[in-house]
């Protein structure tokens, strides 16, 4: 006769609870070990100097505003260029498809940092005397916007192709032109589909704005990352990095929560 062991006599539910309790115990033990090994005094002196953080205000708000401005300008450029590129990408006209495909693959494949270099230094050399309107803001809108437009184009294309083809065929059977079908039937539905991923793209652009330093910013045009790095060099302390990171989170966390809420709302329909 087989003798039941304690493990085999457990129900699956009890076994799962035991495994989960062990996992929690291991996790808490690791946290406790890290907490005991850390030099909290040194950590506080390196990252939590309130006097240094206080000296950053109110100047840091200008960098915060610049970060938002760069993000909004690049996103606006990305939408204005990306939507037509998405329509060209699925066009029945072959040259349109070829051009849109080449554009999207080019700017999705190039690092945003390299694109900013090209815009800030390559274009003025290739086209002597060329000056983009808006100075640094114009360079950032074009540099980050080119990269963003390629991703937005692919997002919008996927949203358009997610609309049931039967609705398009029904609209065409009623005598609607291809353009009117797109504007009246397809795009309104595609917008609801692509809003969550576009919100995620806005989050990515907020973080990519930290690359703006390559275009040569002044004290009044610094974004958060450049300002925090400048303060780090001036104070020889990491507190400015913590302040800059918290301010980035002040932008990105609400946007991420909004994206998740929109995704859940879309799935519940």
UniProtKB/TrEMBL annotation:
CDD domains according to UniProt: TM_PBP2
Main location: membrane
Keyword vocabulary terms for this entry: Amino-acid transport, Cell membrane, Membrane, Transmembrane, Transmembrane helix, Transport
Record flagged with keyword Thylakoid: no
Highest taxon of source: Bacteria
Segments forming domain ABC transmembrane type-1: 64-259
Matches recorded under InterPro entries: AA_ABC_transptr_permease_3TM, ArtM/GltK/GlnP/TcyL/YhdX-like, MetI-like, MetI-like_sf
Residue stretches spanning the membrane: 21-43, 63-87, 99-123, 135-153, 210-228, 240-259
Membrane topology: Multi-pass membrane protein
Coiled-coil intervals, chain numbering: none
Compartment(s) where it occurs, according to its Swiss-Prot or TrEMBL record: Cell membrane
Family label: Belongs to the binding-protein-dependent transport system permease family.
Protein name as it appears in the record: Amino acid ABC transporter permease
Organism: Salininema proteolyticum
Organism taxonomic ancestry: Bacteria, Bacillati, Actinomycetota, Actinomycetes, Glycomycetales
